[in-house]
Specification:
Elements (H helix, E strand, L loop, with lengths): L3 E6 L5 H4 L8 H53 L11 E6 L9 H4 L6 E3 L8 E7 L2 E7 L1 H49 L9 H5 L7 H52 L4 H28 L11 E2 L3 H13 L6 E5 L4 E2 L3 H18 L5 E6 L2 E6 L6 H6 L17 H12 L2 E6 L5 E6 L6
Parallel strand pairs: 7-9
Antiparallel strand pairs: 1-11, 2-5, 3-4, 4-5, 6-8, 9-10, 10-12, 11-12
Helix pairs in contact: 2-4, 6-7, 8-9, 9-11
Length: 449
């Protein structure tokens, strides 16, 4: 069966170093996109309007004007057939007589009686209107240059001015909008760089934003109130964990002492001895869990230490303690060192991680050998147990989840490992498949320089 792999966390910097990472699309980029689309649409609409006005001027107004000129000329021509043809700076005319056709350019002679449009005339393309009356044909030629000049002065020039005004207005509006959202962006940066333990400093850092805007003031107040509630919740959680763990130490110590007295005074038989051993292992397990909870309650105070710590010597002691606590001294556990594993986290952090990984492997390995490898690639623990399905593997690092519905353990070991790896930005990788066992690797990254 092929091995199933799930990479829970890629190598990443510690959470403190991740702060300041911005989303790919913020308010400013959205504003830029909105104003760009708006300016583009208005520009296109304006150009289409000017083009439509140009086409109307050419195809309707000029056409109507030339038809009016032709009608006026025919009226005058009927009164006096020797009336001269129109000839102005922008228009001139040709006349063809019935039968002979008159002296016409070749490009005009082939036109129909109701033609209107451009014609190639001596290399130019003027607008031509053909009008017929009693067999006579009148050709009114309107100069194209004049239409183009009018289109420029009454179309292109106003269009350019309008577009420039649109762009200036859009830019000024964008700058104003940018100034309005600037406090929101600054607030986001401040909040993003804050940690829970620094929450008391947030009101002081947000003080300069007071009085800028009513909405900004409401946001600042909401952030301050939320930070206060969040910090109070974290303090209550840590206090409860710390106090409960301290209170549980005393009854566990009494139970351990009582078991030792029973072991020495009652001379138990084999069955009773096994019961006492299970009770003693449970007490040790609870003491280990309480110690871990106390350690995690102080997690916010954990920082990378300046001097690197060698992890290799920790592992033999961890193996001995875990095997003794679980009562599985006969299960083979091999430690293979491929090199020195150095980390700048406190030694106790890696001891807790190794303890929980080994405990998980022994509890779910069904008595099969467990392999521990340590080196520059991190700490690796592999068991030969029943393995997990992909769904179980996805949930294995959730608190209180026990794969296969097993009753051993509390379902917190791997969750604690994941929490500590997240705290220091270490890579956590898990692979498993039914019948193939489980492989877990914790890599704190390259060794310190």
């Amino acid at each position: 069966m092929a091995r199933l792999s799930l990479s829970l966390h890629a190598v990443k910097p510690a959470p403190d170093k991740q702060r300041g990472k911005r989303p790919s699309r913020g308010l400013q980029s959205r504003l830029i996109r909105v104003f760009a689309v708006q300016a583009t649409l208005v520009s296109v609409a304006t150009m289409l309007g000017v083009y439509a006005a140009y086409m109307i001027a050419e195809d309707y107004l000029v056409h109507q004007a030339l038809q009016g000129e032709a009608s006026h000329y025919w009226t005058l021509w009927e009164e006096e057939q020797a009336y001269p043809l129109p000839n102005t700076a922008n228009m001139h005319a040709f006349m063809s007589t019935p039968g002979s056709g008159g002296a016409l350019p070749r490009s005009l002679d082939a036109l129909s009686d109701d033609y209107y449009g451009r014609v190639n005339l001596d290399g130019k393309h003027p607008l031509v209107l053909v009008s017929e009356n009693q067999g006579y044909r009148l050709f009114l030629v309107f100069k194209e240059e004049q239409v183009s000049r009018l289109a420029f002065f009454f179309g292109i020039a106003p269009l350019t001015v309008v577009l420039i005004l649109i762009y200036i207005a859009s830019w000024l509006t964008f700058r104003q909008s940018q100034r309005l959202i600037s406090p929101v962006t600054q607030l986001a940066r401040i909040v993003d760089t804050m940690s829970v333990r620094d929450g008391t400093e947030l009101p002081e850092k947000l003080a300069p934003f007071g009085g800028i805007d009513a909405d900004i003031d409401a946001l600042v107040d909401a952030l301050n109130h939320y930070t206060e509630r969040l910090q109070a919740f974290v303090e209550r959680e840590q206090s409860f964990t710390r106090d409960a763990s301290h209170e549980l130490r005393t009854p566990l110590a009494v139970m351990r002492g009582s078991l030792d007295i029973l072991q020495t005074q009652m001379n138990p038989d084999a069955r009773q001895a096994r019961v006492l051993d299970r009770m003693r292992a449970t007490v040790r397990d609870m003491e280990s869990l309480i110690e871990t909870l106390l350690f995690l309650a102080r997690e916010d105070n954990l920082e990378l230490i300046p001097e690197p710590v060698l992890v290799n010597p920790i592992l033999p002691q961890v193996v001995t303690q875990v095997k003794e606590a679980l009562g599985c001294a006969d299960v083979p556990v091999t430690i293979q060192e491929d090199g020195d594993l150095m980390t700048q986290a406190p030694e106790r952090v890696f001891q807790i991680i190794a303890t929980n990984l080994l405990r998980n492997a022994l509890q779910h390995g069904q008595g099969q050998p467990v392999e521990v490898r340590v080196g520059v690639g991190g700490l690796q623990v592999r068991d030969s147990g029943p393995g997990m399905t992909p769904d179980e593997l996805k949930r294995a690092f959730q608190p209180f989840y026990r794969a296969g519905g097993g009753s051993s353990g509390y379902g917190l070991g791997l969750a604690i490992v994941k929490r500590l790896c997240d705290r220091f930005g270490w890579q956590l990788q898990a692979e498993s498949a039914p019948g193939k066992g489980t492989f877990i690797r914790v890599d704190p990254g390259p060794p310190p320089a």
